[in-house]
Amino acid sequence: MIQKPRGTRDILPPESRLFQAVEAAAHRVFQALGAEEIRTPLFEHTELFVRSVGETTDIVHKEMYTFADRKGRSLTLRPEGTAGVARAFLENRLDQRPLPQRLYYIGPMFRYERMQRGRYREFRQIGLEIIGASTPLADAECIMALWEFFAALEFDNFTVHMNNLGDPEDRPKYAQLLRSYLMGSKDQLCSDCQRRLQENPLRVLDCKVPTCKEVTAAAPGMDTVASQASRAHVEEVVSLLTSLGIPLKWNPRLVRGLDYYVRTVFEVVSPELGENTVVCGGGRYDRLLSDLGGPEIPGVGFAVGEDRLIDSLPPAFAAKVTTEVRLYLIPLGNEPALFGLQLARDLIRQGVPVELEVGGRSLKAALKRADKRGFAKVVIFGESELARGVVLVKDLRRGTQQEVPVAELAKDWQREVEP
RNA sequence: GUGAGCGUAGCUCAGCUGGCAGAGCGCUGGACUGUGGCUCCAGUGGUCGAGGGUUCGAAUCCCUUCGCUCACCCCA
Question: Which nucleotide has the least CA–C1' distance to A306?
Fold first, then answer.
């Protein structure tokens, strides 16, 4: 038996409804803010990701699905969405349209990683990019959009973690500062952190080992060397969001895994999936487009891990989405079966979702099945009902049943669903 | 890349120091002819992940291999 490749998943009903609901919310919220959908290739030239995400990052270093095509060109399945959007933006000269442009995408990403809870090799991201605005207001709008997206999914308790990564020229300065600070307590760091100390001291701030946390607790924050301009920028973003009533948690140890971020960075972690499982990450990337050979156009954006988001959806919302709301049509006999087919056609034309019993079940068996499937209402009709132009509508929850003229069935349903 | 655990029915799992492969749930049907939920009955369903070894006999013990999961790492 052939199985799916490691790290991929089959999204089956009813879970597929959760994906539909989440994506519908994304379309609705982002479009309301003036964003438009962009769809870019699932694979790109490898060079694009090496240059944008960063050669030394883990993503590029060891997690990309890279392959040679038949002409020997090196291609890579996209590990994230922003690079492709930036490339498409430049290639199609979208900078010639009015700026800023708000673009969002929904689709699969690929990273070669070991499987773990909430971590897949093929996973879906929903991302929003605001390209062509460098103001703190743009950052704030971006995070506000994120907030509204989560709110539309009925999340009521989550926090946006924020930090300032400074400008590109600040980062080596900070790495040096942090390294010399940590050198003093080198012996108390775990073996991983002693290695990180040389390679990438910022990562030490991320370590979960308690002794390392103690050492880094009083370490100087990025803002001690961040440029005055970047500090003023991020402070303004915080101020704007605070005025909006969006709770932020300042986290000076927040470090992102992509090199292109500057200044504002933020994350949302899921309490359900554990403290180190990021559901959403984003930030500002003012140098990305110019680094890719384009004009100096700033941008800010985020990506939500759709699979992880769905794993941590509020239960009440998930239950509502997966509940069967449709009329179950049960014909009794051959004449009524034909009528049932016509009735199903008429009802779906009027926007009433139905399920016709086509398995020839007895009434008893059909009702039993209706109960198991969670149908709220069933429609029963035999020859005697048809002769009188009515059907029996049975409410399974209340246990009541009444005759309804066939012509009023759709109206009866709409009254029930949209009171 | 490092470490740990687990593979038995569609699902969740039992199966003792080796002795006829099981339960619950699910699915299908039935218990007054056209009225569900509870209950009861019946049916359905397994190369015990795969290969090899030990043995009269292996789901069980040993070896190999494949697969899955979790943690580290990193990230969505």
Answer: B76
Closest protein CA to C1' of nucleotide B70, residue: A116
Cα maximum dimension of chain A: 92
Please state whether A399 falls in left (phi above 0), alpha (psi between -120 and 50) or beta: left
pLDDT in tens, A120-136: 999 999 999 999 999 99
Considering all nucleic acid strands, name the nucleotide whose C1' atom is nearest to the C-alpha of residue A392: B35
From the list A226, A210, A207, A219, the residue with the least C-alpha distance to A183 is A219
In chain A, which segments carry CATH 3.40.50.800?
324-417
Among A161, A155, A128, A143, CA closest to A241: A143
Q: Which CATH superfamily is domain A324-417 in?
A: Anticodon-binding domain (3.40.50.800)
d(CA A193, CA A178): 12
The integer distance in angstroms from the CA atom of A114 to the C1' atom of B51 is 27
Superfamily, domain A15-167+226-318: Bira Bifunctional Protein; Domain 2 (3.30.930.10)
Q: How far is the CA of A1 from the C1' of B20 (A)?
A: 29
Runs of H (alpha helix) within A153-227: 170-183, 191-199, 210-217
The ipTM, to two decimals, is 0.84
Half-sphere exposure of A359 (CA within 13 A, CB side): 11
What DSSP line would sit under A305-356, residue for residue?
A: EHHHHHHT--HHHHHHHHS--SEEEEE-SHHHHHHHHHHHHHHHHTT--EEE
Closest listed residue to residue A22, CA positions, set A255, A302, A307: A307
| Separation between Cα atoms, residue A40 and residue A37, nearest integer Å | 10
pLDDT digits (tens, 9 = 90+) for A147-190: 999 999 999 878 899 999 888 888 778 878 888 887 777 777 76
Q: Residue A203 has what DSSP assignment? A: G
DSSP code, position A119: B
CATH 3.30.930.10 domain position(s) in chain A: 15-167+226-318
